[in-house]
Amino acid sequence: MSPTRNDLALETRAAIVGLLNQRLADTIDLYNQLKQAHWNVKGPHFIALHQLFDELAGHALPWADDLAERTVQLGGIAEGTTQVVAQRSTLAAYPVAMLDGGDHLARVAAALASYAAATRRAIDAADQAGDKDTADLLTGISRGADKDLWFVEAHLHGR
C-alpha cells in the first residue's frame, strides 16, 4: 500500500483495495463479454442488439475506471491486466462461437445479473468496513447494472 493522508485505517484501505480489484476484474470481463456479443450477434434483430450491446459496453468502461481510480486513491494498485482479469473474474465464461441474438441476450442477462448481485455484496462489505465512499461508488454501479439488465430482459420478454 502506498502512503496516503486518507483517514481510513490501513487495514480498512487494504480490505477495500482487494474488494475493488475484484470488482474491477468482473467489470473488465463484463465489458469484454458485451463486446463479444456486439461483434458477433446475428439474426432478425441484429441492428438493435448490435447497438444495445455496444451501448452497454460503454457503461462498463467508466465503471472500471472509477473502480481503478478509487483503488489508487486508497493507496492500492489497480490490477486490471488481461492475465489478472482472467484469473479473478467470477463471471461465467462467455461462449465465443455463439451467434444467435436470443442466445446472446440470455448470456448477457445472466452476466449482468451475476455482476449486479456481486456488486451489491461489495456494497455491504464496503459499508461494514466503514468506507461509505466506496459503498456509494458501488451503489451507483449497481443502479446502472440493474438498468442495463432491465433493457436486456425487455428483449427477452415472451421467450
Q: Enumerate the spans where pLDDT stays under 50 for 5 or more consecutive residues.
A: none
What is the fold named in CATH at topology level? Ferritin
Q: Strand count, sense and closure of the main sheet?
A: none
CATH superfamily: Ferritin, core subunit, four-helix bundle
Radius of gyration (Å): 17 Å
Domain count: the total is 1
SSE run: HHHHH
Strand content: under 5%
CATH architecture: Up-down Bundle
Number of strands: 0
Helix content: over 70%
Distance between the termini: 49 Å
The CATH top-level class label: Mainly Alpha
The backbone outline, from C-alpha atoms, is elongated
Instruction: Give the helix tally.
Output: 5
Could you tell me the mean pLDDT? 96
Q: What structural class is derived from the secondary structure elements?
A: mainly alpha
Task: Tell me what the structure shows.
- The chain has 159 residues and is mainly alpha-helical.
- It has a single domain (10-156), classed as Ferritin (Up-down Bundle).
- It has five helices and no strands.
- It has helices at 10-40, 46-73, 82-88, 101-129, 132-156.
- The longest helix has 31 residues, at 10-40.
- It is elongated, with a radius of gyration of 17 Å.
- The termini are far apart.
- 34% of the residues are buried.
Short account of what is shown:
The protein is mainly α and 159 residues long. Helices cover 75% and strands 0% of the residues. The chain has one domain (10-156): Ferritin, core subunit, four-helix bundle (Ferritin), CATH 1.20.1260.
